[in-house]
Amino acid sequence: MVPKQIYDQVSDKASEGLALALADENDGAIMVFQWCNRAFTQITGYAQSDVIGQRGTVLIGPDVAQSNHLLIIEKLMNWETFSMTLLNNRKDGALCWQRMGWTPLSDPVSGQRWWLCSLIDLPDHNGCITNGHSADVALLDHTAETDDKHRLRQLERENAHLQALAATVAKESNEDALTGLSNRRHFEVELKSWISDLKADGSDFAVLYIDLDRFKL
Description:
By secondary structure, this protein is an alpha+beta fold.
């Protein structure tokens, strides 16, 4: 058994950022961080108190490419072991290159599922494979990168289709098919909002409701 004093030194002195998150048993993309080491806080800019108890999305900065974000979510949902290099944001918004890795873990006693997240800061990253990789590893990375790029393009197309479909559904659910104006359901929602604002403002107002028989005819 590793002495606690040694374990604590490894946690504090490791240069690789490490964190453990408890995951939802049915969806690997839903998780809550329970622990992280000192290097993890140095790389991300988040204190331990900022990370522990937070969802995994706290690691994804606002400037991360949407395609990368979608790919991460898909792989987490499928409980895949993976790593990727991406341009991310620290807590203060500063951009930085990181190598982010995810490894699924499971507790055979409780049945709980966990994620081990690893982060490596890449201050000199230029989009190429860094020195020290063997030819075999470089080939594997290149193959994985090609597969990921193909999947990214597929996800982007699917996401664009879903966004267009959602816009069409929202438009049709709010418009009257005959006139193209707001339908009754949408109008009543807006009316309640207007009345609430007028009441809060203390203004005098009246609502005139007109019903036309056989309007469509």
